[in-house]
Each structure stands twice: as C-alpha cells, then as structure tokens.
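JOB MANIFEST
job_type = single_chain_structure
chain_count = 1
residues = 529
[input]
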Amino acid sequence: MSRTRCAIVAVVVSSWALANLGLTGLAQATPATPTITAAQPNPLKMRLTSSTGTHWSWTIVDTANNVVATSTTNPATPTFASAGDYTAKLSATDNDPLLTAPAMAQKTFHVYAKPAAAFTSTTLANGSVQFTDTSTGEPTAWTWTFPSGTSKLKVPPAQLLPVGVSNVTLHVTNPAGGSSVTQAIVVNGPPKAVLNIMSTPAAIGSAVLLDAGRSTDPNGDALSYGWDLDGNGTYTDATGALQSVSYAVAGTYRVGVQVNDGHGGVSTVDGFITVVADRPPVVGFTNTPAEPMVGAPVSFTATASDPDGTIAKIEWDLDDDGAFDDAAGAGATWTFATPGSHIVAVRATDDHNVATIAFRTLNVTAPPALVAPTSVTVPPTGSSAPPPSPSSASGAPIPRVPAPSSNRLPLLAPFPVVRIRGLLSHGVVRISLLRVQAPRGTTIRVRCRGGSCEPRKGDLRVKVARTPVRLRTLEHRPLKAGTLIEVFITAPGRIGKYTMFKVRADAAPARDDRCLQPGRMTPITCPGA
C-alpha cells in the first residue's frame, strides 16, 4: 500500500514540475475544432453557438475587419446596427486552460433586417398588368395573391385582371420576419358609346336630336363627348351628350359621337340620318267632357293633316307611360281611375314616317261625395251594440275622412293646377301653353334646367295678383330631350305644390306632382297620398 501512494504522488509532482518549467508543449492535445452555428431569432440579431469548449472568446467583425461585438458566453447573441455580412471568430478551451491549447474557428454569416413589402404595377399594351417587387429589407421569399391565384416568383407573370377594382397582395419574408401589402388595382375598361337618332327620316330644315346620354362606362367614370356632325371623320364639331343637326338638302348623312372616360378609354359609334323632302304633319285633339271626372268615360277626337303627303297612322298615349299603345285611329275613349293632373298625347305619322306629337294636361276631378241616407236605425234602449255605420243608397260604405289635426298645416285652397300643352316633332318640344291656376298671394317660381334653357338664367318668380298665370317665358322655345321644367307654388303657413316636367325625345313630357312645405324648395309626398 505504501508503494502505490508514492507512485501517485510522483506523477502529480511530475506534472506540476513540467508546468512550472514551461514545458506545456508536452500537455495533452487540444479539443476538437468547434462547429459554429448561426441562427437569426430577431431582426438585426444573431444567435452564435459553439459545439465544444467550456471557455469561449467571441470576436465579431464586419467586412472591413472592424470589430462590432465581443462575447464570452455560449451562445453569443450580438445585436447589429445594420444588415450585412459579418464574421464570428471563436477561441474555445476546455476546463484546464493550462493543459489545453485553445481551439480556433470562424464563420461568416448574413444579418437581415425585417423586410417591408411594396410593389408597383404597369398596364401593358395587351391590357394585362405587370407587377414589380419594390420591397426593402432583402426579402428571400415572395407570395403574390391575385384574383386568379397565387405566385411564388419574385417577378410573377403578367396578369389579366377583370375590369374594375381588384385587390392584389404581396407577402415577403426573410430570416428576420415577414411583411404584407395589399393594393387596389383599377383596370380601366373602355366606355360603351350609344347613339340615339331621335327622328329619321327627317324633313328638310327640321332639327334632328342626337342623344349619346345613354352611353355607359364599366368603371363609372364621368364621360365626355365629341361629335362628328359633318361626316368628315373628326369628332371635334361639338361637345355634350345632346346635339341637334338639320339639313337643307334631301339625302343620307353620317353623324357620329366619340365617348371618352378620361382614363384612356375611348369608344366611337356612328349612325345615318335620312333626310327627305317632307314637312312634318300637323295634329291636335279635343276631349269631351272638357273637365273629366274619375270613373266617367272621356271621348277624344284627333284632327291630323300632312302639308305634303298623307297621314299613315294616329296613335294615343292616354295613361302617360310614354308608349302610344292605348288606342289607334282618330277617335279614342278612356276612363281615368284617379283624380289630379294627367297628360294625354296623340301621335300622327305621315307617309314618310315623320311624326308629330300633340299633348296637354287634363285636370281630372273626383266625383261628388255620396250623401248618407237620412234614416238611421236606432238600437233599443239599453242595448250595448254600437249604432250602425251610415251607408250610401247603393250599399257601399262612405269613406271615412280623418278629422283635421290642429298641428297639421293646411293645403293651399283651392289647390293649384298646372297645365301644359305643346307639340313634339323631330325630338324637339315646343310648349304652346304653360299656365298655373293658384290662389292670389301665392308665389310661383319656375326653374328650367338643361342646355335648352339658355340664354335665360336663374329662376322666374311671379307673385300671383290675378289668376290664372301664364308663364310665357318658356312657351314656343325649342326644348331638347332631358330638359327639366320645375314649378314651385308656395304661400306662408300652407302646403304648396311642386310640378316637374321632363322633356322626352319620343313621348310627351313626363310629369311629377308633389307638395312643398312653406318656404321650402324640396318636394315631399303630399299628405294623404
């Protein structure tokens, strides 16, 4: 036993002596060269891990060999000021640095900042859209989302997007994270040009109305119009949705309109006008009785002639729907179901298919109120049954009229009547009578809107001193389709009347009757309507 202890002591002393003599070259071998693993947990931050050693000395340098960080821990987690390439240099030893030489290793890695997604789009000549990635922060992966699908390419194929608004999304990623951006891409579609020639064939010297106002745009853009009225192929003769032309010589003429949406979309449509040596027919009508009543038949009689030909047909619009399909021939009969103002029109067409429309307002009155019978059955004394409701002689119940409310404004009395009469030929209306029957002291305002209203500007205002009032300002003036004539009749403390006429190209003017609050110009539904 004593010999063994002495041997161990001798070995220890010998190692100590070698160390003190500086003979470390005779120590055991250095540990295995460490493997450095680099992972990025966050933007501008790295996690550097050594596979061996118990003591570490890290030095991180940039591409110019400038030291940017040091560490003595494993793993080391340096933070960087900017993205770029860096190199980690490592010196690692075991638990006895005196007996173990340091193991050296180094690794170059890239530090990423978090990307920010961005892109641009360009519409190509064929209508497709090319998208270009403009993201910052060095993305390494891309995901594009289109209405038709997705793409993982940095430069995706050009996309055929539908006309209108489409959402396109780009998501980019790199080891530091990800970012997304969505853009609403507007694909412009060309407008659809529509040209309505309101009267062809047309007579020599007669105005022919041209209407492009029904043109549409798939993007809802405001449209502008350029006209070719002389057939030379250039669309610079006039602007606006409505135009009119006339010709001094019979023949066939080409006209056209070019519609522009202001975003590069242009559409053109042409048409032809046949001009004949013809004068439009003359037409008028009478009705019996002159003041129709609800539920009572009214007889209409038309008189029509053509100064240079014959009348081919006579048609009636008696329900004010713009269609001449209620009766045919010189005579017609109609029964009105509701009281109030009704426009009646008759159309005469000559042997050259040229037509004239005559129209006017009829004021249809309600029938007299039925008188209740004088005999009323009285229930026996003490009976709880209510007295029977009075009835008419025919057995039909008498309508109940609500009692007037103390806080309800009264109507103007008598309630105003607005009458209109005129002719429509070649798409142009000429009013021969515009008359208002209103109580004295009321105020009448007339407003005309549309190109036909020039050169008169502003509202016409009349204080009723005597009745009826004839509004001659708008009489005998050619009014194109789309023109609006509004009549406002008001008085303090009473509900007034609003009447609007809208000129149509192939029918009598459309009419709208409503009410007005005192001092207001916004029409409302009439009480009890």
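[summary]
The chain has five domains: 11-111, 119-187, 196-274, 278-367, 437-529.
The domain at 278-367 is CATH 2.60.40.10 (Immunoglobulin-like).
exit_status = 0
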